[in-house]
């Protein structure tokens, strides 16, 4: 959970301890990205919908340089269109671009 420190200190349902997932190996043949966001996004968009927004953006901009800022802004824009009521942070990591040295 990003932010909301007061909740983590006062409500036992929220953990101050970070969740660390097992290591995932990404082969050169698979396409992979990570979308890290605050609850302002996840309150209005499911993980499946967020992934689809990223894939749609990448497809619409195929052949052009895809910027992490552009993808994050696109996802954030959708959260705003859905009237998120919380502050929202979005970080996009494109492992394909990292593998290719872009």
TrEMBL record:
GO terms for molecular function: protein serine/threonine phosphatase activity. It is an enzyme of class 3 (hydrolase). Gene3D superfamilies: PPM-type phosphatase domain. Residues 1-95 form the PPM-type phosphatase domain. InterPro entries: PPM-type-like_dom_sf, PPM-type_phosphatase-like_dom. Pfam families: PP2C. Its EC number is 3.1.3.16. It catalyses: O-phospho-L-seryl-[protein] + H2O = L-seryl-[protein] + phosphate; O-phospho-L-threonyl-[protein] + H2O = L-threonyl-[protein] + phosphate. This is protein-serine/threonine phosphatase. It comes from Aegilops tauschii subsp. strangulata.
